[in-house]
Design brief:
Layout (H helix, E strand, L loop, with lengths): L2 E3 L1 H4 L9 H10 L3 E4 H13 L4 H16 L1 E3 L3 H15 L7 H13 L2 E3 L3 H6 L4 E2 L4
Parallel strand pairs: 1-2, 1-4, 2-3, 4-5
């Protein structure tokens, strides 16, 4: 089984008080984990939003290391088509899920991956397998 790691799990080790269970889970499963371009863009955007300084510089260095450790899947035309269908499926029963989460879920569905995230409800609404390493 492979896991598509969401931004909240990728970034957990950078927090002042990380959830040890989540950090340990990721370290123990890193060889089974991938992420996607949407997640990496979300993380990079968050770093870029910070003011210039030591924290931002440290996170930029951390991000460079992350890029070399975790395989990043591309967001392709095939995934985009899965995304279009997935969004329509989520909307039919009246749910809304954020665009980035539906895009991440589309990658997971296309590649047959389980999403590793704290945000279980939205990914369940997208109909993809989910695991919460924070619990």
């Amino acid at each position: 089984m492979k896991f598509l790691v969401d931004a909240n799990l990728l970034c957990e080790p950078t927090k002042a008080k990380p959830v040890d269970r989540a950090v340990d889970w990721f370290q123990n499963h890193v060889l089974e984990c991938v992420t996607d371009a949407v997640v990496m863009g979300e993380v990079w955007q968050g770093i870029g939003h910070l003011a210039e300084g030591k924290r931002r510089s440290n996170l930029e260095t951390w991000f460079d290391g992350l890029r070399s450790r975790v395989h990043c899947l591309d967001w392709s035309l095939e995934v985009a088509i899965v995304w279009g269908d997935l969004v329509n499926e989520v909307r039919r029963p009246g749910f809304t899920v954020g665009i980035k989460d539906t895009m991440i879920a589309a990658t997971a569905r296309y590649d047959g991956l389980t999403v590793a995230t704290r945000n279980v409800v939205d990914f369940q609404r997208c109909g993809v397998p989910v695991i919460n390493p924070f619990e």
